[in-house]
Amino acid sequence: MRYTVILENGGWVVWDTIRREIVTHPATSEEAQETCSRMNADAVTRPVDPPVQVDGWGPLGELSLWVWAEDTWWGQVTNKQGVRWVKADDMRPR
Questions:
Q1: Contact 77, 61 (CB under 8 A)
Q2: Where are the domains of the chain?
Q3: pLDDT tens per residue, range 16-75
Q4: ∠ at Cα 73 (47, 85), nearest 5°?
Q5: Inter-CA distances, 14 with 35, 52, 71, 77, Å
Q6: Quick one: 2 exposed, middle or buried, by C-beta within 10 A (0-12, 13-18, 19+)?
Q7: pTM
Q8: Strand order in the sheet with 11-16
Q9: Which residues contact 50 (CB under 8 A, 6 or more apart)?
Q10: How far, CA to CA in Å, does 31 sit from each of 21, 42, 61, 74?
Q11: 57 — phi, psi (to 5°)?
Q12: Which helix (H) or strand (E) holds 48?
């Protein structure tokens, strides 16, 4: 999902995995989890089922989710190095 909870700045915060920044003030774990769940529920997403292999400037990995953010579609791509977000314009199917 786009948002996750991390421990930072003396409390629990919601982290935007696409913009790579904190989007809430420090809070309790429960408050941050609730906010994170609400933000992810409000996000415009489209699952890719079944996931597809995609390339960019080289092999990227497996696309499993689209998210609308920053006025463009971003794909959640998983490979051996982990999960990352790639702009739709920067990838193509294998």
A1: yes
A2: 3-42, 45-93
A3: 999 999 999 999 999 999 999 999 999 999 999 999 999 988 889 999 999 999 899 999
A4: 75
A5: 7, 29, 21, 21
A6: buried
A7: 0.81
A8: 3-8, 11-16, 21-22
A9: none
A10: 18, 17, 34, 27
A11: -75, -10
A12: strand 45-55
Q: What is the DSSP letter of 49?
A: E
Tokens encoding 50: 């079944």
What tokens does 13 get? 């915060």
In this structure, what token pair is assigned to residue 53? 């292999």
What is the rounded CA–CA span in Å between residue 54 and residue 66?
13
The residue type found at 32 is A
Q: Quick one: tokens of 77?
A: 């791509």
Closest by CA position to 64, among listed 82, 50, 74:
50
